[in-house]
Structures are given as C-alpha cells and as structure tokens.
Inverse folding.
C-alpha cells in the first residue's frame, strides 16, 4: 500500500498549487453524499427552517442553481467527511498535522448560467491575505469533492491557473487568464489547492451538465479565519467525537477548553 502523499504528489502540489485525485471517493459514498445534499437543500428551502446562529455567508437558494453553507450539522455523512481518513493523509502531509476546520459549503448547479460564483479570486480574509505578499503562504487548504460527472468541460468546472500561488503580480482578470485549465473529473474526484491559487468556476454552457460538489476548508490551529466554528450550537459541538473536537477551537465549547490540535 502506497503512503500518501507520495513524493511525486508533494512535488506536483508544491510547484503547481493543486492536486487532482481521480476516483478518490467510492461510488456508494458519492451517491450517499449526493442524496444528503439534496435533502439539505430541500430542508433549507422549507419556510419553517431556522438556525440558532446565522451562517457567516448566506445560503443561495432562490434559483435552480444553489449554494449552501455550514454543512456539518446537516447530516452525519458531512461530519464524517471532516476527518475522512484517506483525505487526512493529504491534509497532514501537505498542510498541518493538527488542522482545524475553516469552512464547509456545497454547490448544486443544474442549469447553464451566464454568471455563477465569485469570478477569479484567491481565498482568505483581508482580500485573500494580500497583506502577506509578495508570496502568500499556505494558510488554508481547500478540498473539493466532485459528486456529479464533470469529466467534460464547460459545466462550471473548477478552473485555475497552475503555479499562480507563486505569482508576484496581480493578474488582469478582465483580459482572460493565460494558462487557465478546467479541472475535469468523474464523480468521486477530489481536488486540493492552495489558498493563493487563482481560481474560479468555469463557464457553464453545457446542456445537461451539472456542477455538484462539496468543499471542505482547513486552517492552521493558531488561526481564526472563519466564523463557521462558532455558528454550531452546543448540542452539536458536545456530540462530536474526541477526534472531531480537535478540529475546533477550544473557546467554542461550553465550558471552554484548551485546544491545540
């Protein structure tokens, strides 16, 4: 059995800023997550749906194409993916042995659209950690899971510029992005990328195409870069396993606890 990440995977990630893992999730897990996401969307569209704490970023539920935030309490399958062991090998090996939760969200897009997503951007607070330029360090580790068949382009595929996490200059996004590639992959593909990677959702013009995917973000244990951690209620937090609690800052628990990893 090969240990991951391999030296070749590490070399590729370090130099290109991303890594694609095809067939990473088994078909039955993909199908279960897909169904859980559809149930989540239906529940959140219900007029009676209420949260104890509003999310840091609002859900987008008023059209056929949907984005939902803060997923861990919605279904045990989403929580299970927080510390999914095969992915943790990559999170530990490429990022940090003691990762904390940064964010969770999902896209469920089933109709071609002229515009969707943020457009070209890098991730992180303070406008993408731009105050740390010229080389923005690896502060957030993003993991995307394809739940629909995105082996063909032009259905909202994650689109990025390899190596752009090392760029010294801001790109002119109005004139296109030289070197941009659409990440194509079948259901179960996983995509990992650096927070300073320039990326966007690609064009969605393919009839019958779908963009259904989950995103999990991880941060270093000394960071406080996202509000998702303290948006969950105590019943959920107290129900976490000891291993899962290590992904949360100690102050979110009642009573607070020392937490380092």
């Amino acid at each position: 059995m090969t240990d991951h990440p391999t030296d070749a995977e590490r070399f590729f990630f370090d130099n290109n800023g991303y890594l694609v893992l095809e067939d990473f999730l088994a078909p039955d897990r993909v199908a279960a997550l897909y169904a859980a996401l559809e149930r989540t969307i239906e529940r959140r569209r219900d007029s009676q749906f209420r949260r104890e704490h509003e999310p840091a970023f609002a859900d987008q539920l008023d059209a056929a194409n949907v984005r939902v935030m803060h997923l861990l309490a919605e279904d045990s399958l989403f929580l299970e993916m927080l510390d999914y062991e095969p992915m943790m090998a990559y999170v530990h090996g490429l990022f940090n042995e003691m990762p904390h939760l940064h964010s969770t969200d999902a896209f469920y897009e089933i109709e071609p659209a002229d515009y969707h997503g943020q457009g070209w951007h890098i991730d992180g607070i303070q406008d993408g950690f731009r105050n740390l330029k010229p080389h923005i360090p690896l502060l957030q580790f993003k993991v995307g899971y394809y739940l629909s068949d995105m082996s063909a382009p032009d259905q909202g595929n994650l689109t990025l510029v390899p190596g752009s996490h090392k760029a010294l200059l801001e790109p002119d996004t109005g004139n296109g992005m030289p070197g941009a590639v659409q990440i194509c992959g079948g259901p179960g593909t996983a995509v990992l990328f650096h927070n300073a990677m320039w990326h966007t959702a690609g064009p969605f013009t393919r009839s019958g195409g779908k963009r259904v995917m989950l995103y999990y973000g991880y941060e270093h244990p000394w960071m406080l870069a996202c509000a998702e951690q303290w948006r969950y209620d105590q019943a959920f937090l107290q129900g976490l396993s000891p291993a899962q609690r290590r992904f949360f800052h100690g102050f979110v628990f009642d009573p607070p606890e020392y937490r380092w990893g």
